[in-house]
Amino acid sequence: MIKSFVLPVLWAALSSLGFGMIFGLRTKKLLYVALGSALTWLAYLICMELNTYEVSAYAIAAGIGTVYSEIMARVIKTPVTAFVIPVNIPLVPGASLFHSLLGLMQRDNARFLERGKYCLAAACAMALGIFIATMLFKFVKSVADRPKNR
Questions:
Q1: Is the pLDDT at 1 greater than 80, yes or no?
Q2: How far is CA 10 from CA 23, 40, 50, 133, in A?
Q3: Model confidence, pTM
Q4: How far apart are alpha carbons 99 and 117 in whole angstroms?
């Protein structure tokens, strides 16, 4: 159990630090990026443990990471994109993209199509999770900021 959750979450947190540095984040903000990516990857692993369809797990985890990013961006007064992108980096299906392009280069159409469809589905699910979480967050914020009628 520990190896199946703790180590992958730790590696996800560490991998996002480099992307946080690319976005110009410094010490304290990098810690929040690492925590957010750990949360995102933990959400993905929990979804997979609960036998959720894998594409749905991508959407749910990306949504959770985006809500975290929206909250932390307002708390720390940083643009949301500085958090959203690094926090969701662990979800990017890089190995599948590699194998898809390898199939293309080796003229293995079956591998190319199989892995390509998976990559496209995962990327679309991530985009949908980010979009839905952003819109829900903005809706809740607009309702909370609305002046009370007297």
A1: no
A2: 21, 11, 21, 24
A3: 0.89
A4: 12
